[in-house]
Each structure stands twice: as C-alpha cells, then as structure tokens.
Specification:
mainly alpha; Proton glutamate symport protein; two-stranded antiparallel sheet; globular
Length: about 425
C-alpha cells in the first residue's frame, strides 16, 4: 500500500516520539540518529545551488517566452512582489509577537536539542550582521559566482542568477531556445532529485526527532507547536485580510466571490501540496467560474505557479526567525533585511512541488550564519504547513489574475455587472 507522503511523515513523527521516549539518553540511538539525520541534511544542502539557480534562470526565460514585460507583465510582477513582501512582513510580525523560539523567557535551543555552540553562532551572526545594510548590499554582487556557489554565499549567487536569466531572455530566439532547453533540463532533473530526496524525508524525520526526544524528552514539541501557530496565523492573516483588501480596493470585487469560484482548486492545492499540479484546476476555475479571459489567465497563472509563492515566502521568514530565536539571537537590521530579501527572492525559485521550501530555508540560514540543524526539526511539522501554504500560493495566483484582469479593463470578471445590480 503506497501511503501519501504526509501520512508517512505523520507516522514517522509518532514513531519517533515513541522510540525517543523509550530510548531516552541511549548513546547508540543518539549516534545512529545523528548520522542518519546528518546524511539527510547533507542531501538537502546538495540541492541548494543547482535547484535555485536553475529555477531562477528557467523562470526568467519562461517569462520572455510568455511575452515579456508588457502591461500584463508589469502588473503581474508588481502584484507578486508587493503581496510577497506583505506576506513576509506578516510572518515577521507574528513570529515577533509569539516568539516560538523562546520558552519561559529562555531560548529553546536546549529543549529542541540543537547541538550547535550558541555563543559561537551568536558571534558568527553578529560578524555577518556587523556591516549591516551596506554589507548586505556589497554581498549582492559576487566577484566570482563559482566561488560564491562553493562557499554557499547564496545572496550573491541569486543576484547572478537573476542577471544571467534576464540576459538570456534578451537573446535572439534561436540562441534563447538553446539555453532554455539546457536550463529547463537542469531544472527538471533537479526537481526529480528533490522528489527522490523527499521520499527519504520520513526516515530523516524519524532520525532527527527520535534523537531530539531521546535527548530532551517531549518538551521539544512545545516550541514546534508555537512555530506552527505562528505560520498558520500568518497564512490566515494574509488570506483573509490582506488579499481581500487588495481585491476590494484595487480590483473592486468581493473576496468571497473568488473564494467560492476557487474552492475546487484550493482543495486540490491543499491535498497535493503542489501549485504546479494544481495549475490545470486553477486555470479551469479562473476561466470558467471567475470568467477571466484566457489571454490574461494564460499569462498570469503559469508565471504565478512558479513566481507567486506568498505562503512559501512567509513560511521561510518565520522558520528563519524561529531558529534564530531558539539560539537566543537578537538579529541586527542587516540580518533581518537579508532574511526578508532572501525570502522574497528564493520564494521565486522554489519548485512547485511538496516541501521544496525547505531548500530555500537552508539558503536563508546559510546567508545569516545559522546552522542547518534546525531544518530537521521543522521538517517534522513541514508537511501539514506545506498543505496550508500551497493553498495560499494558489489563492494568491487567483487574486493576481483577478487584479490584472480588472486593471486591464475586463468588466465581466466574477460577474461584476450582476454584483453591481444587486448592490
């Protein structure tokens, strides 16, 4: 019987709590779980450079093939960047309010079983944040992109990827098509490797959580529950306050009408955790129920499935701040700016497949000098949160399509004449 990944993850989590409780402080269990957990984290790190770089370049070339930055393009990307930034700031706010990484006024590193030297990590992060905003700006341009990739300096590498992808999109069609095939091949190959690694996720979850529970007991679940609460509250705030306000103030349409039209696609997104897999259903709902013309939906939605990932950007920001709080870090403005900027940029490069945001989180943690061991703990609750944020990603795509259509002069969207008559 081939169980869905989220059920296997939940089973692994439950088994890890049971085994960890029974084998408390067992040196053998801790050693084996530490080795397996490290192997899984290494596999995630292996994906970072090729997946993010290929996704960014492939996305920009695809944008050129969709028709470039005409009026539709400017409106589309303007909406995506604006709402993505709002989503990240919402996540930052909820994490600051709930402080999931702090338990009873004490950083939760010990409770979570994080083994990194907190004082050394604080020193490292402070060193990276000492230059503050100017240091971040200087790191945007790498002197050697290959060296930046080797050292894991993803901030500079992302900039290079954006510039390289834009340059390729400007080439004559023959040259562009050759490059597009090459980068699409790399992107598709990396998606397959990512899917292969994620098949081992239940094993990784079992090893990491078993080791944590064996070392610290089930107290580690408390900060994880608060982390989940911060993410869910952020997603709900964006879905039921921010996007409805944008629809009302900019597109002049009620959010409930879009929710009703998009219900099948939202349920599909929630169950599959894949915006790409949901794309056909999303297009069907937008065109046949929301009455958006295909000339708009055919441009906005395919780009949105790869670029507009508000839920993922919010999640990445909350995860990075949560891990920083757990180590007792007071992040400087430069470090917070780096988190916000990278969450916005890497969300563009996140593959539209389950749990792909974990790769982007490792990019952000590496950029600000935090160890990646916290990713393993987040992974224990990632699947449920992945379902929630994917639904928000798809709702954001639909909202963008409605806004672009209305600003482009389309009057029949969401049965506007009927709504006006009934008002």
């Amino acid at each position: 019987m081939n169980l869905p990944l989220h059920w296997r993850m939940l089973i692994a989590l439950a088994a890890a709590v049971a085994v960890g409780t029974l084998c408390a402080d067992s040196a053998f269990v801790l050693k084996v779980c530490g080795m397996v957990g490290s192997l899984f984290l290494s596999a995630l790190k292996m994906l970072i450079v090729p997946l993010i770089l290929a996704a960014l370049i492939n996305g920009l070339i695809g944008g050129a093939e969709q028709g470039g930055l005409g009026k539709l393009g400017v409106l589309t990307f303007g909406f995506y960047v604006g709402t993505g930034l709002l989503a990240i700031l919402i996540g930052l706010t909820w994490t600051s309010v709930l402080t999931p990484g702090i338990v009873d006024g004490v950083p939760a590193a010990g409770i979570l079983g994080l083994s990194g030297d907190a004082s050394a990590i604080v020193s490292d992060v402070q060193q990276k944040g000492a230059e503050d905003l100017w240091g971040v700006v200087l790191r945007l341009i790498p002197t050697n992109p290959i060296e930046a990739a080797a050292k894991g300096d993803m901030l500079g590498l992302v900039t290079f990827g954006l510039l390289f992808g834009w340059a390729l999109s400007q080439l004559p069609r023959g040259l562009r098509d050759t490059q597009a095939s090459f980068w699409k091949g790399i992107y598709e190959a990396m998606i397959r490797i990512t899917a292969l690694v994620m098949k081992a996720a239940p094993i990784g979850v079992f090893a990491i959580v078993t080791g944590t529970v064996a070392k610290t007991g089930i107290a580690a679940l408390q900060p994880l529950a608060m982390f989940m609460l911060a993410v869910v509250l952020g997603l709900l705030t964006h879905a039921f306050i921010v996007l409805p306000l944008v629809l009302k103030l900019v597109a002049r349409v009620p959010a409930y009408a879009l929710h009703r039209a998009m219900a099948p696609a939202l349920l599909t997104a929630f169950s599959t955790s894949s915006s790409n897999a949901t794309l056909p259903m999303t297009m069907d709902c937008i065109e046949n129920k929301a009455k958006v013309p295909r000339r708009v939906s055919g441009f906005v939605l395919p780009i949105g499935a790869n670029v507009n990932t508000d839920g993922s950007a919010l999640y990445e920001c909350v995860a990075a701040i949560f891990i920083a709080q757990a180590y007792g870090l007071d992040l400087s403005f430069g470090a917070q700016f780096t988190i916000v900027a990278l969450a916005l940029i890497t969300a563009v490069g996140v593959a539209g497949i389950p749990s792909a945001s974990l790769v982007a989180i490792t990019v952000i943690l590496s950029a600000i000098g935090l160890p990646l061991e916290g990713v393993g703990l987040i992974l224990a609750v990632d699947r449920v949160l992945d379902m929630c944020r994917t639904a928000l990603n798809v709702l954001g795509d639909a909202s963008a399509t409605i806004v672009v259509a209305r600003l482009s002069g389309e009057d029949g969207v969401l049965d506007q004449p009927a709504l006006k008559q009934s008002a």
